[in-house]
Amino acid sequence: MTSSTGDRTAAPASGIARDDSEGMDYLTSLPRRTVTVYLPLFCFLIVLLFPFYWMGLTSVKPNEELIDRSLNPWWVVDPTIAHYYHLIVNTDYPLWMWNTMVVAVSATLLSIVASVMAAYAIVRIRYSGSRWVGGMIFLAYLVPPSILFIPLALVVFQYGLFDSPMALILTYPTILIPFSTWLLMGYFKSIPYELEECALIDGASRWQILTRIVLPLSVPGIISAGIFAFTLCWNEFIYALVFISSSENKTVPVAVLSELVEGDIYHWGPLMAGALLGSVPVCIVYSFFVEHYVSSMTGAVKE
Fold first, then answer.
1. What pLDDT is attached to residue 15?
2. Rounded mean pLDDT of the chain?
3. Which label site among 116, 159, 285, 295 has the fewest CB atoms less than 10 Å from its CB?
4. Do 137 and 182 touch, CB atoms closer than 8 A?
């Protein structure tokens, strides 16, 4: 009896061990790893990095090489920084970068504050109809900006904000708050309600709970929403094109296209240099906060 019982208990144990060990056996051989891992990663890196390679290559090519079809288009023979010098010294590119930074940071801060308040009120304060409110906020994000900018343009003109950075700072939250609120709603749901109930029993107010309990636990989610808002502000084109007309108030996406294109003449060197420099701040932001961004996205999706 003892031996038979031992055999019955040993069999499932060995079976479990064998199942665990066989989970990734198909990756043990080099040909299978090449087809299933290395080749897809290589294709992904090519698609992801090629635009940056092409921008960097074009930005250091002399004008003679840009128009000479006899040369190798995938390489540069005599690199130069003349396009960067022309962009920084002979244009208002530093001012455009400053305008973009001011607008992006201001609109992001304004949107995050409003999104935190809205997400906390919808998720943590229990009342009837909260889910409907959250759904309506998310549906507002689905409205295309190409439709919203027409009524917003009327408001901007009536309040005298046309051709000023405030026109962008106050209109960008209309497209940032809905998605940021939805993202923070998913993250706030992952915080246990028991923490808030204990604070209420101890006499804490809703504001104290938000600032001392919810916000410290929601830092990854807030960073994720901030990265999304900052990136969208930095790359936004329609509102910046409609609401800003003078060169000294333009942002980088609009100024690079409108100021470096003369009729049918495209100055490809400065254009690519401006696009490459314009992508650097966003890359820096992502490189510093990528871990918080991934953790907050998983926290929002699991709910």
1. 46
2. 81
3. 159
4. yes
Q: Are 235 and 22 in contact (CB under 8 A)?
A: no
Give the CB-side neighbour count of residue 132, counting CA atoms within 13 A.
3
User: Helix (H, G, I), strand (E, B), or coil: what is residue 250?
Assistant: coil
Q: Specify the higher pLDDT residue, 289 or 50.
A: 50
Task: Report how far Cα 39 is from the mean position of its chain's Cα atoms.
Answer: 27
Helices 219-235 and 173-189: angle between axes, nearest 10 degrees: 160
- Point out which residues pair with 265 in neighbouring strands: 262
Question: How many angstroms separate the CA atoms of 302 and 189, rounded?
Answer: 10
The answer for 261, left when phi > 0, alpha when psi is -120 to 50, beta otherwise, is beta
Q: What tokens appear for 250 in the block?
A: 């333009």
DSSP string, 139-166: HHHTS-HHHHHHHHHHHHHHTT-TTSHH
What is the Cα–Cα distance from 226 to 111, expressed in whole angstroms?
Answer: 8
* CB atoms inside a 10 Å sphere around CB 112: 23
DSSP string, 174-203: HHHHHHHHHHHHHHHHTS-HHHHHHHHHTT
3-class secondary structure, 265 = strand
Asked if 139 and 151 touch (Cβ cutoff 8 Å), the reply is no
Residue 81 has pLDDT above 70, yes or no: yes
Q: Is the pLDDT of residue 215 over 60?
A: yes
b/e map 50-89, b = 16+ CB within 10 Å = eeeeebebbbbbbeebbeeeeeeeeebeeebebbbebbbe
Residues counted in the chain: 303
Per DSSP, the three-state class of 113 is: helix
* Residue 97 near residue 278 (C-beta atoms within 8 A): yes
- Angle among Cα 11, 16, 18 to the nearest 5 degrees reads 95
Say which residue, 242 or 68, is predicted with more confidence.
242
Q: What are phi and psi of 285, to 5 degrees?
A: -60, -45
